[in-house]
Amino acid sequence: MNSDAPLESTIAHSNIHSTSIGFGVMAIASHYIFWSFISPVFRRFCLPFLPATSSQLDNTYTLLEYAQSRNCDRSLGSVIDLGSGDGRVLIDLISRPTLKITSAHGVELNRPLVWYSRIKFFYVSKVITTPKVTFTCGNIWKTNLSVYDTVLLFGVDSMMESIEQKMIKELRSGSIVITARYPLPNSEACKSIIDGPHSVFLYKM
């Protein structure tokens, strides 16, 4: 009689069970991440994750530097990026030594992107001195803009009029707004860089 047979059977069953659990966890995680990227399509304003290009980042930096110089080289204050995606916009800007930023905050509805942004910033903060930077999961339409001095938005055309109304209602006089790709429809930009899909617009509210 082989006394090892029941033990081998138990081990084999345990391995199959562990593998099944592993596949189940992977399937759930994959579904969650997939849904995080697809769900914007079903909202009133679809703001999909479109990573900022290097040209958009450079143009944004140029206009922020211009705004800073027009403000007697004073700080841009507290900066918020609405729909911060993978965090690349804020991380790029805080890495530019000529920009004076007291704090930076990214708000993004896609939780996996928020996690990714936090991890990326953690490694960046190890090699350069940065202002306080935070990334949170939240709805930009429910975000109180009144506590920020500078607002960044890489938006889509369908949302620009509504977000403009929110900015006018909540932002303090003199606040700086930068929009990329699309302008605010009813506000006159004080400076802009027209560069096709890399266009960026500067407003003083």
UniProtKB/TrEMBL annotation:
One GO term of the biological process aspect: regulation of mitochondrial ATP synthesis coupled proton transport
A molecular-function term among this protein's GO annotations: protein-lysine N-methyltransferase activity
Keyword S-adenosyl-L-methionine in annotation: yes
Superkingdom of origin organism: Eukaryota
Any Gene Ontology CC annotation: mitochondrion
Gene3D superfamilies: Vaccinia Virus protein VP39
Keywords: Membrane, Methyltransferase, S-adenosyl-L-methionine, Transferase, Transmembrane, Transmembrane helix
Transmembrane segments: 20-38
SUPFAM superfamilies in UniProt: S-adenosyl-L-methionine-dependent methyltransferases
Family: Belongs to the ANT/ATPSC lysine N-methyltransferase family.
Protein name: Protein FAM173B
Originating species: Schistosoma japonicum
High-level lineage: Eukaryota, Metazoa, Spiralia, Lophotrochozoa, Platyhelminthes
